[in-house]
Design goal:
two-stranded antiparallel sheet, mainly alpha, single chain
């Protein structure tokens, strides 16, 4: 594990969040955003008469959905240090540098690289399973860790 992270954990008495806790938080966030998106697009989606037309509609709004995910993650991490899913699982994101909530640029960086990790077959998330500090790609690029609390 990185010496900076070890020092941060020891100095602030932080404990790294487990991968299963982070996974459940991810699922909660995805469900919330999917339900919100289905609610917003209900008039359009309800007009789909075949599965292919449903897929066409959902694919047409992929960029908007990704934009909403980036906004959601950026705002919640920058303001509260946690998304709704993380809050439910009682974990939060902190900066490796000082142990505080990440700033807006780090939160945005983290949100964008989360999407990149998802697009590339979730490899950035899988990386966290083998990382000593449980850091996914988006944590590494934003210089953050996810802790209990």
């Amino acid at each position: 594990m990185n010496e900076t992270i070890e020092t941060l954990l020891r100095h602030h008495n932080f404990e790294l969040a487990s991968i299963p806790k982070r996974g459940v938080a991810f699922i909660i966030d995805e469900l919330l955003l999917s339900i919100l998106f289905m609610f917003v697009l209900w008039d359009t989606i309800s007009q789909a008469d075949t599965f292919e037309s449903f897929l066409f509609i959902t694919n047409a709004y992929t960029l908007e959905y990704l934009g909403v995910k980036i906004l959601y993650q950026t705002i919640f991490v920058a303001l509260y240090g946690a998304s709704l899913g993380k809050m439910a699982m009682r974990v939060r994101v902190v900066s490796v540098l000082d142990g505080d909530i990440p700033g807006w640029s780090a939160a945005f960086n983290r949100a964008v690289f989360r999407i990149i990790s998802e697009i590339i077959f979730y490899l950035g998330f899988i990386w966290a399973m083998f990382d000593p500090a449980n850091q996914a790609w988006h944590d590494r690029t934003a210089r953050t860790v996810v802790i209990n609390g």
